[in-house]
Design a protein that fits this description.
The protein has about 150 residues and is an alpha+beta fold. The protein has one helix at about 1-30; strands at about 35-40, 50-60, 65-70, 75-85, 90-95, 100, 105-110, 115-120, 130-135, 140-150. The chain has two domains: about 1-30; about 35-150, PCu(A)C copper chaperone (Immunoglobulin-like, Sandwich). The protein starts with a helix and ends with a strand.
């Protein structure tokens, strides 16, 4: 009888562990095997001026993917830029070279680093608005997001 109860207890624990692992795997698979874009936001700015968008691109696939271009209906010109510092300590911005997101890694676009420039805005962007941004990847194709406008 003791052997039977011990066996039953071990099997019950195994089933519970398996169910928990299965639920975690389902959660992990939501972003696995694809490119995802999260934590997006855009700075407020007036019509005709420039703004910037920040976000995180995660490559959950098994191969590298290249960001070919970025577009938005909010601005006439859109591009990925990076902030740099020269030998004299002055900071500036330049258009980013080829953006490759390696497998199982993330690229963070943030103030002071890589960011998306929205140039010659079509309208004023106020806190509470949102901006459509379109991404074109070599492997994953087109991705669209709506980034909220906010002051951080």
């Amino acid at each position: 009888m003791k052997y039977f109860l011990n066996t039953l207890f071990v099997l019950t624990l195994a089933c519970l562990f398996s169910a928990c692992s299965s639920q975690q795997a389902k959660k992990d698979n939501k972003t696995a095997n694809k490119i995802s874009i999260k934590k997006s936001w855009v700075r407020p700015a007036n019509q005709g001026t420039n703004s910037a968008a920040y976000l995180t691109i995660t490559n959950g696939t098994a191969q590298a993917d290249t960001l070919l271009n970025v577009a938005s209906t909010a601005a006439d010109m859109v591009g990925v830029h990076e902030t740099y510092r020269n030998e004299q300590g002055m900071t500036g911005m330049k258009e980013a070279e080829t953006i490759i997101i390696q497998p199982d890694s993330s690229l963070i676009l943030e103030p002071g680093g890589y960011h998306i420039m929205l140039m010659d805005l079509e309208k004023t962007l106020q806190e509470g608005d949102s901006v459509q941004i379109f991404f074109n990847f070599a492997v994953s194709g087109e991705k669209r997001i709506k980034a909220p406008v906010k002051n951080l």
